[in-house]
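Q: Joint fold for the lines below.
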Amino acid sequence: MHKKWIFNQLMKIEPQIMAIVIGTTDISLIPGISVAGASPELTHYTPALDVEYLLLGMPKTMEVIPVTPEGIPTPALVTRAVAGEVAKLVVNAGSRITPKVPYVDLGGEPGRDFRRGPALSCEAARNILERGRALGCELGRLGCIYIGESIPGGTTTAMAILVAMGYDAWGRTSSASPNNPKELKIAVVKEGLRRVSAPLKPLEAVCEMGDPVHLAVAAIALGVSECGGVPVLAGGTQMAAAAALYKGLGGDLAKLHVVTTRWIAEDKSADFMGLMEIVGVKNVYIAGVSFAGSKYEGLRAYERGAVKEGVAMGGALFYALSKGKDVLRLVEAEYERLLSAGVAGNVN
Amino acid sequence: MHKKWIFNQLMKIEPQIMAIVIGTTDISLIPGISVAGASPELTHYTPALDVEYLLLGMPKTMEVIPVTPEGIPTPALVTRAVAGEVAKLVVNAGSRITPKVPYVDLGGEPGRDFRRGPALSCEAARNILERGRALGCELGRLGCIYIGESIPGGTTTAMAILVAMGYDAWGRTSSASPNNPKELKIAVVKEGLRRVSAPLKPLEAVCEMGDPVHLAVAAIALGVSECGGVPVLAGGTQMAAAAALYKGLGGDLAKLHVVTTRWIAEDKSADFMGLMEIVGVKNVYIAGVSFAGSKYEGLRAYERGAVKEGVAMGGALFYALSKGKDVLRLVEAEYERLLSAGVAGNVN
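A: Joint structure:
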């Protein structure tokens, strides 16, 4: 009985498509705030490189996959290695560098530094909401849709969105770095908040203090659930911001699912479960994977808090585990392929 | 036994997604060559309006659905009415007017008048081929993918592509008009051919004499079949050009399916089955629907050869029939809705 229930739950959230929403925010250019790229400037290339590599097996815009300044590889590696057979759909919510692979365009724009002025124009936000919802509706007809993200600086804009909407998210979002630069992120958000009078409505919070990606994730999830599908947010603490927007825009949290990695759930520098709780997310799943036994330093680093999430890694691992896959073997094989091709950075 | 075989065949080509590939060619601006719009200039709006209406139920860029100069409504009406629950994905191969709904961009460009010079730049054609194929591969993981089109002037560029590749397609493509302007189309293609020395290779034929859409359809079909899916070209005589490109680019015709309407199959001004034969298409399906009993003149006109195909209408009808739907009732109900909203042109 219990086993059957679990099986049914797993079937219910088996992805038909993984939508990967990409975008940039100029917040990622602030030195020290993001390690989703080898340098602050390179963070603007990370979303494009992530999805090029995810779809094609090789990046196109540059000849290297995204790495942290320490050379730890992008979570896209894990997503590709363990869920290669799942259909992927790239969605561009607003990126300074657009990828050289097919992507759905939502008519958005890259996010600006919210300390200096509004992050997004009203028109871009309206486009993202309307078109994301229409896309989600079409995808929802297929059944279960995973929605992942790639946006360097996203844990800072997620905190900003949540705080601007009135949630106490101060210092509770995670980081791709083992050393979460919480004080810097809090200071940046506080500086931005000076321009506005919180709490703001969902769309205002995004336009003033957000970025294109979290709104697009929420809009797609709304559309999926409105057209009979099952939306699954595949990401870490950032998905608390997406879920808050989804809820604030009228979405039913009973229909929403969030799935992430153990590395996020166990991150003591953040508060994933607490954020899910204050937003009211009911269905949370954790992929209990360990890379501690890997022969590669670049993968063992995940156990020390490097990377943690992104590009739907938690969702991909959750799916792969439900299929009984040997995920570490698959990830190591893919990492070997990238190392021998010379596109995987300098740590192994 | 026989019934079961038919059922299995129908299951095999039940669409997971309908991809609607849109684009424009300046050939449609030649007076008299296309009725896929109320005037030659308006033909450039038709693809955008078609897909806006298909996804949202109302056009956005203008407040009217595409109609012929006589006011006969777009085939998108039928596709929406009978296959509304199938997931749609809009793919922009190259359009002068881009739609205000989410669409996948392939990095192509609008087709130019091939009488004056090449129809497409090499870069645009390469993008369309590479990205269409990558998109098709992802979609193919889902199973069966219908690929439809909306490109006014497409029966002329289809003839041009086929002839440029060395097929005898002179005067054998269909038309959305009951009076197929074959002599005009032949004269236009002949004028273009003066610039080149046929036969040309597939990509050369497209760049010199084609348009963005037929190449995108072929590229998506290639990707679908390469990644284990079932590609179904949902369209009329134009799909002979797409199938020829698919074959010329290395695609396996045994894996390719074409489905269209009875109106195309029975069009005496064209030669649908003959074109399929010379290209070598093996799997052809016809949706045997009649609108003769409709109470609306705008729909009875389909029986006199108006419209005939487009926006995957034949595929949508084939799918709806296999589900046992009362298609005429559904189409009339949708037409009534559009008439009462005042967006369906002037014939009823």
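Q: Anything notable?
A: Chain A touches chain B at residues 16-17, 55-56, 85-89, 91, 100-107, 131-132, 134-135, 137-142 (CB under 8 Å). The beta strands of chain A are 17-23, 87-94, 103-105, 144-150, 230-234, 257-261, 283-287.
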